[in-house]
Amino acid sequence: MLLRREIVATRNKPRRYCEALSRAHWISFHGAALLALMLPSLTAQAEIMPGKPDAIVCSVKDPTGVLPWEQLVYYVSARMSDGTTLYKTLTSDPVVLLVSDAGIINGANLADCHNRNVKSLQEEGRAFTLTGRADG
């Protein structure tokens, strides 16, 4: 009789183990789902380069005079040793612009951004971080 109880107890152990494992997976899955829902509100809105927007939208003067390139998106690419930030387009032949440490845009081939301040472009919605607007 003792042997039979041991067999029954042993037979129920895997079932109990599976039930506990199933509960643990359920909690893990739902905990991860809850975290995924809360994560966007918990993440900080920070720029890639502190104090500079991640992207700037500017138009380029067309060197041929036929067609201007309007509203190209420039993405932050590098920070130089003098504090200047380099932005590039993702076109096959990248167009670049420079933003000084003071926030002034330098790009002689730009139709509407050359010598402008980044703050004014942020106010217009043309300079922003990838997680939201750079001005808050």
What would your notes on this structure say?
This protein is of the alpha+beta class. It folds into 2 domains: 1-43; 55-128, no CATH class. It is 35% helix and 22% strand. It contains 2 helices and 6 strands. It has helices at residues 2-42, 118-123; strands at 55-60, 69-79, 85-89, 96-99, 105-106, 127-128. The protein has a 6-stranded antiparallel beta sheet. 14% of the residues are buried. The mean pLDDT is 74.
Task: Give a brief outline of the structure.
Helix content is 35%, strand content 22%. The protein contains 2 helices and 6 strands.
Features:
2 domains, alpha+beta, 6-stranded antiparallel β-sheet
Radius of gyration: 28 Å
Q: How do the helices and strands follow one another from N- to C-terminus? A: HEEEEEHE
Strand order of the largest sheet: 5-4-3-2-1-6
Discrete helix count? 2
Name the helicity range: 25-40%
Task: Note the beta-strand portion.
Answer: 15-25%
Structural class of the helix and strand makeup? Answer: alpha+beta
Q: What is the typical, i.e. mean, pLDDT?
A: 74
Distance between the termini: 75 Å
Number of domains: 2
- The shape is globular
Provide the fold topology.
Blueprint (H helix, E strand, L loop, with lengths): L1 H41 L12 E6 L8 E11 L5 E5 L6 E4 L5 E2 L11 H6 L3 E2 L8
Antiparallel strand pairs: 1-2, 1-6, 2-3, 3-4, 4-5
